[in-house]
Protein backbone atom coordinates (compact mmCIF):
# COMPACT_ATOMS: atom_id res chain seq x y z
CA UNK A 1 0.00 0.00 0.00
CA UNK A 2 1.32 3.44 -0.96
CA UNK A 3 2.49 5.58 1.97
CA UNK A 4 1.44 9.21 1.66
CA UNK A 5 3.17 10.23 4.93
CA UNK A 6 6.31 8.63 6.32
CA UNK A 7 8.12 10.01 9.35
CA UNK A 8 11.41 8.45 10.39
CA UNK A 9 13.05 9.20 13.77
CA UNK A 10 11.68 12.73 13.71
CA UNK A 11 12.54 14.97 16.66
CA UNK A 12 11.78 18.61 17.38
CA UNK A 13 13.62 20.68 19.97
CA UNK A 14 12.41 24.16 20.95
CA UNK A 15 14.22 26.34 23.49
CA UNK A 16 16.23 23.36 24.64
CA UNK A 17 13.11 21.26 25.22
CA UNK A 18 12.47 18.13 23.12
CA UNK A 19 8.83 18.32 22.09
CA UNK A 20 8.90 15.41 19.62
CA UNK A 21 11.23 12.45 20.18
CA UNK A 22 12.23 9.84 17.54
CA UNK A 23 8.75 9.73 16.07
CA UNK A 24 8.00 7.11 13.40
CA UNK A 25 4.68 7.20 11.57
CA UNK A 26 3.07 5.76 8.44
CA UNK A 27 -0.12 7.03 6.79
CA UNK A 28 -1.51 5.12 3.83
CA UNK A 29 -2.88 6.85 0.78
CA UNK A 30 -6.67 7.07 0.78
CA UNK A 31 -7.21 6.40 4.48
CA UNK A 32 -8.50 8.49 7.37
CA UNK A 33 -5.84 8.57 10.09
CA UNK A 34 -6.93 9.63 13.58
CA UNK A 35 -4.16 11.26 15.61
CA UNK A 36 -4.80 11.09 19.35
CA UNK A 37 -3.01 12.26 22.47
CA UNK A 38 -3.47 14.27 25.66
CA UNK A 39 -2.99 18.02 25.69
CA UNK A 40 0.66 18.95 25.25
CA UNK A 41 1.60 15.53 23.83
CA UNK A 42 2.91 17.01 20.57
CA UNK A 43 -0.03 16.62 18.18
CA UNK A 44 -0.07 20.15 16.81
CA UNK A 45 3.73 20.31 16.50
CA UNK A 46 3.68 17.07 14.51
CA UNK A 47 0.94 18.36 12.22
CA UNK A 48 2.78 21.63 11.65
CA UNK A 49 5.89 19.69 10.61
CA UNK A 50 3.87 17.54 8.19
CA UNK A 51 2.31 20.70 6.73
CA UNK A 52 5.84 22.10 6.31
CA UNK A 53 5.08 25.09 8.53
CA UNK A 54 8.01 24.27 10.82
CA UNK A 55 11.05 22.05 10.31
CA UNK A 56 12.11 19.03 12.37
CA UNK A 57 15.36 19.26 14.33
CA UNK A 58 16.35 15.78 13.14
CA UNK A 59 14.95 12.84 11.21
CA UNK A 60 13.10 12.95 7.91
CA UNK A 61 9.57 13.36 6.62
CA UNK A 62 8.44 12.07 3.25
CA UNK A 63 5.18 13.13 1.62
CA UNK A 64 3.98 11.47 -1.59
CA UNK A 65 7.27 9.58 -1.67
CA UNK A 66 9.36 12.79 -1.70
CA UNK A 67 11.60 14.14 1.03
CA UNK A 68 10.06 17.22 2.63
CA UNK A 69 12.37 20.26 2.72
CA UNK A 70 11.86 23.98 3.42
CA UNK A 71 11.65 24.55 -0.35
CA UNK A 72 9.15 21.79 -1.14
CA UNK A 73 6.72 24.26 -2.69
CA UNK A 74 5.18 21.79 -5.14
CA UNK A 75 4.43 19.36 -2.32
CA UNK A 76 2.84 22.16 -0.30
CA UNK A 77 0.34 22.75 -3.13
CA UNK A 78 -0.91 19.18 -2.76
CA UNK A 79 -1.82 19.71 0.92
CA UNK A 80 -4.76 21.42 2.59
CA UNK A 81 -4.60 22.16 6.30
CA UNK A 82 -6.57 23.57 9.20
CA UNK A 83 -4.23 23.68 12.17
CA UNK A 84 -5.23 25.35 15.43
CA UNK A 85 -7.43 28.41 15.04
CA UNK A 86 -7.71 29.62 11.41
CA UNK A 87 -6.10 32.99 10.67
CA UNK A 88 -8.46 34.83 8.33
CA UNK A 89 -8.84 38.23 6.72
CA UNK A 90 -11.42 39.61 9.14
CA UNK A 91 -12.42 42.63 7.04
CA UNK A 92 -13.14 40.59 3.93
CA UNK A 93 -15.94 38.20 2.98
CA UNK A 94 -15.65 34.41 2.96
CA UNK A 95 -15.49 34.47 -0.84
CA UNK A 96 -12.69 37.04 -0.87
CA UNK A 97 -10.71 35.01 1.68
CA UNK A 98 -10.84 31.95 -0.55
CA UNK A 99 -10.00 33.93 -3.69
CA UNK A 100 -6.86 35.34 -2.05
CA UNK A 101 -5.84 31.89 -0.79
CA UNK A 102 -6.24 30.34 -4.23
CA UNK A 103 -4.30 33.20 -5.81
CA UNK A 104 -1.18 32.70 -3.72
CA UNK A 105 -1.49 28.92 -4.06
CA UNK A 106 -1.53 29.31 -7.85
CA UNK A 107 -4.92 27.63 -8.10
CA UNK A 108 -7.41 29.19 -10.51
CA UNK A 109 -10.79 27.51 -10.39
CA UNK A 110 -13.76 29.71 -9.46
CA UNK A 111 -16.10 26.72 -9.36
CA UNK A 112 -13.90 25.01 -6.76
CA UNK A 113 -14.27 28.06 -4.53
CA UNK A 114 -18.06 28.02 -4.88
CA UNK A 115 -18.10 24.27 -4.22
CA UNK A 116 -16.00 24.70 -1.04
CA UNK A 117 -18.40 27.35 0.30
CA UNK A 118 -21.36 25.13 -0.49
CA UNK A 119 -19.83 22.03 1.11
CA UNK A 120 -19.13 23.95 4.32
CA UNK A 121 -22.53 25.69 4.44
CA UNK A 122 -21.26 29.22 3.79
CA UNK A 123 -22.93 30.08 0.48
CA UNK A 124 -25.48 32.35 2.14
CA UNK A 125 -22.92 34.61 3.84
CA UNK A 126 -22.69 36.84 0.72
CA UNK A 127 -21.40 40.26 1.72
CA UNK A 128 -21.01 39.49 5.42
CA UNK A 129 -17.51 40.28 6.71
CA UNK A 130 -15.61 37.51 8.50
CA UNK A 131 -15.25 39.65 11.65
CA UNK A 132 -18.99 39.21 12.13
CA UNK A 133 -18.82 35.41 11.83
CA UNK A 134 -19.38 33.14 14.82
CA UNK A 135 -16.54 30.88 15.99
CA UNK A 136 -18.21 27.94 14.25
CA UNK A 137 -18.54 29.85 10.97
CA UNK A 138 -14.87 30.83 11.09
CA UNK A 139 -13.99 27.18 11.65
CA UNK A 140 -16.09 26.28 8.59
CA UNK A 141 -14.31 28.94 6.56
CA UNK A 142 -10.96 27.57 7.65
CA UNK A 143 -12.07 24.16 6.39
CA UNK A 144 -13.36 25.65 3.13
CA UNK A 145 -9.95 27.24 2.61
CA UNK A 146 -8.28 23.89 3.26
CA UNK A 147 -10.35 22.02 0.67
CA UNK A 148 -10.90 24.65 -2.05
CA UNK A 149 -7.62 23.82 -3.84
CA UNK A 150 -8.63 20.12 -4.09
CA UNK A 151 -5.73 18.74 -2.02
CA UNK A 152 -4.60 15.12 -2.01
CA UNK A 153 -3.83 15.29 1.72
CA UNK A 154 -5.96 17.13 4.26
CA UNK A 155 -4.47 17.87 7.69
CA UNK A 156 -7.10 18.85 10.28
CA UNK A 157 -6.33 19.84 13.86
CA UNK A 158 -9.50 19.83 15.98
CA UNK A 159 -11.69 20.63 12.95
CA UNK A 160 -15.02 20.56 14.80
CA UNK A 161 -14.06 23.14 17.43
CA UNK A 162 -16.84 25.66 17.92
CA UNK A 163 -19.47 23.59 16.09
CA UNK A 164 -22.80 22.51 17.55
CA UNK A 165 -23.88 18.83 17.41
CA UNK A 166 -25.61 19.31 14.04
CA UNK A 167 -22.51 21.01 12.66
CA UNK A 168 -20.31 18.19 13.94
CA UNK A 169 -22.48 15.61 12.23
CA UNK A 170 -22.41 17.59 8.97
CA UNK A 171 -18.62 17.85 9.09
CA UNK A 172 -18.34 14.12 9.76
CA UNK A 173 -20.35 13.38 6.61
CA UNK A 174 -18.27 15.90 4.67
CA UNK A 175 -15.02 14.22 5.74
CA UNK A 176 -16.38 10.83 4.67
CA UNK A 177 -17.45 12.23 1.31
CA UNK A 178 -14.07 13.90 0.69
CA UNK A 179 -12.35 10.62 1.50
CA UNK A 180 -14.62 8.22 -0.38
CA UNK A 181 -15.68 10.27 -3.40
CA UNK A 182 -12.60 12.44 -3.92
CA UNK A 183 -9.98 10.01 -2.64
CA UNK A 184 -8.49 12.58 -0.25
CA UNK A 185 -6.31 11.23 2.56
CA UNK A 186 -7.34 12.77 5.88
CA UNK A 187 -5.05 13.20 8.89
CA UNK A 188 -7.29 14.31 11.78
CA UNK A 189 -6.73 15.23 15.40
CA UNK A 190 -9.75 15.61 17.66
CA UNK A 191 -10.49 15.51 21.38
CA UNK A 192 -13.95 14.14 20.50
CA UNK A 193 -12.90 10.51 20.35
CA UNK A 194 -16.33 9.34 19.27
CA UNK A 195 -15.86 11.25 16.01
CA UNK A 196 -12.52 9.56 15.38
CA UNK A 197 -14.15 6.21 16.15
CA UNK A 198 -16.79 6.90 13.49
CA UNK A 199 -14.28 8.05 10.86
CA UNK A 200 -10.80 6.59 11.22
CA UNK A 201 -9.26 3.62 9.46
CA UNK A 202 -6.08 3.87 11.54
CA UNK A 203 -5.21 5.64 14.77
CA UNK A 204 -1.89 6.81 16.17
CA UNK A 205 -1.49 7.69 19.84
CA UNK A 206 1.19 10.16 20.91
CA UNK A 207 2.32 10.76 24.50
CA UNK A 208 5.17 12.97 25.69
CA UNK A 209 6.32 13.48 22.09
CA UNK A 210 6.55 9.74 21.31
CA UNK A 211 4.20 7.70 19.14
CA UNK A 212 3.29 4.88 21.52
CA UNK A 213 0.65 3.14 19.41
CA UNK A 214 -0.25 2.87 15.74
CA UNK A 215 -3.06 0.44 15.01
CA UNK A 216 -5.95 -0.07 12.59
CA UNK A 217 -9.48 0.45 13.86
CA UNK A 218 -10.19 -3.09 12.65
CA UNK A 219 -7.68 -4.33 15.22
CA UNK A 220 -9.19 -2.13 17.91
CA UNK A 221 -12.68 -3.47 17.16
CA UNK A 222 -11.44 -7.07 17.09
CA UNK A 223 -10.35 -6.87 20.72
CA UNK A 224 -12.74 -8.23 23.35
CA UNK A 225 -15.48 -5.62 23.29
CA UNK A 226 -17.79 -6.68 26.10
CA UNK A 227 -16.51 -6.96 29.63
CA UNK A 228 -17.74 -6.96 33.20
CA UNK A 229 -16.23 -4.34 35.47
CA UNK A 230 -16.36 -4.92 39.20
CA UNK A 231 -15.26 -2.68 42.04
CA UNK A 232 -14.44 -4.66 45.17
CA UNK A 233 -13.10 -4.00 48.66
CA UNK A 234 -10.34 -6.60 48.38
CA UNK A 235 -8.95 -7.14 44.87
CA UNK A 236 -6.37 -9.76 45.91
CA UNK A 237 -9.03 -11.98 47.45
CA UNK A 238 -11.32 -11.33 44.48
CA UNK A 239 -8.60 -12.42 42.04
CA UNK A 240 -8.14 -15.64 44.02
CA UNK A 241 -11.87 -16.36 43.80
CA UNK A 242 -12.05 -15.58 40.07
CA UNK A 243 -9.12 -17.86 39.30
CA UNK A 244 -9.77 -20.74 41.69
CA UNK A 245 -13.54 -20.76 42.24
CA UNK A 246 -14.78 -19.57 38.83
CA UNK A 247 -11.81 -20.69 36.71
CA UNK A 248 -11.66 -17.29 35.00
CA UNK A 249 -8.37 -16.57 33.25
CA UNK A 250 -9.22 -13.63 30.96
CA UNK A 251 -9.36 -10.66 33.32
CA UNK A 252 -7.32 -7.59 34.19
CA UNK A 253 -6.75 -5.77 37.48
CA UNK A 254 -7.08 -2.07 36.66
CA UNK A 255 -6.15 -0.69 40.09
CA UNK A 256 -6.41 -1.64 43.75
CA UNK A 257 -10.17 -2.09 43.59
CA UNK A 258 -11.29 -2.40 39.96
CA UNK A 259 -11.18 -5.63 37.91
CA UNK A 260 -12.30 -6.12 34.30
CA UNK A 261 -13.44 -9.60 33.25
CA UNK A 262 -13.28 -10.30 29.51
CA UNK A 263 -14.31 -13.97 29.56
CA UNK A 264 -17.40 -14.31 27.35
CA UNK A 265 -18.98 -17.31 29.11
CA UNK A 266 -19.31 -15.51 32.43
CA UNK A 267 -22.41 -13.51 33.38
CA UNK A 268 -22.66 -10.57 35.79
CA UNK A 269 -25.04 -12.65 37.93
CA UNK A 270 -22.43 -15.43 38.27
CA UNK A 271 -19.71 -12.96 39.25
CA UNK A 272 -21.87 -11.10 41.74
CA UNK A 273 -23.15 -14.25 43.46
CA UNK A 274 -19.73 -15.90 43.71
CA UNK A 275 -17.98 -12.83 45.11
CA UNK A 276 -20.69 -12.27 47.72
CA UNK A 277 -20.70 -15.96 48.73
CA UNK A 278 -16.96 -15.65 49.38
CA UNK A 279 -17.41 -12.59 51.62
CA UNK A 280 -15.93 -10.10 49.17
CA UNK A 281 -17.41 -6.62 49.38
CA UNK A 282 -18.91 -5.68 46.01
CA UNK A 283 -19.27 -1.92 45.56
CA UNK A 284 -20.14 -1.83 41.85
CA UNK A 285 -20.70 -4.19 38.93
CA UNK A 286 -21.53 -3.21 35.37
CA UNK A 287 -21.32 -4.76 31.92
CA UNK A 288 -19.55 -2.46 29.49
CA UNK A 289 -18.46 -2.27 25.86
CA UNK A 290 -14.92 -1.20 24.96
CA UNK A 291 -14.95 2.14 23.13
CA UNK A 292 -12.14 4.00 21.41
CA UNK A 293 -12.09 6.35 24.39
CA UNK A 294 -11.41 3.47 26.77
CA UNK A 295 -8.83 2.00 24.39
CA UNK A 296 -7.11 5.40 24.25
CA UNK A 297 -7.16 5.87 28.02
CA UNK A 298 -5.80 2.37 28.61
CA UNK A 299 -3.04 2.96 26.04
CA UNK A 300 -2.04 6.25 27.69
CA UNK A 301 -2.18 4.65 31.15
CA UNK A 302 0.07 1.76 30.07
CA UNK A 303 2.37 4.02 28.02
CA UNK A 304 2.67 1.40 25.24
CA UNK A 305 6.03 1.46 23.50
CA UNK A 306 5.36 -0.96 20.68
CA UNK A 307 3.93 1.40 18.07
Automatic annotation (TrEMBL):
Residues 5-233 form the ABC transporter domain. Pfam families: ABC_tran. The keyword Nucleotide-binding applies. InterPro entries: AAA+_ATPase, ABC_transporter-like_ATP-bd, P-loop_NTPase. One of its GO terms (molecular function) is ATP binding. Gene3D superfamilies: P-loop containing nucleotide triphosphate hydrolases. Keywords: ATP-binding, Nucleotide-binding, Transport. Belongs to the ABC transporter superfamily. This is ATP-binding cassette domain-containing protein. It comes from Shimazuella alba.
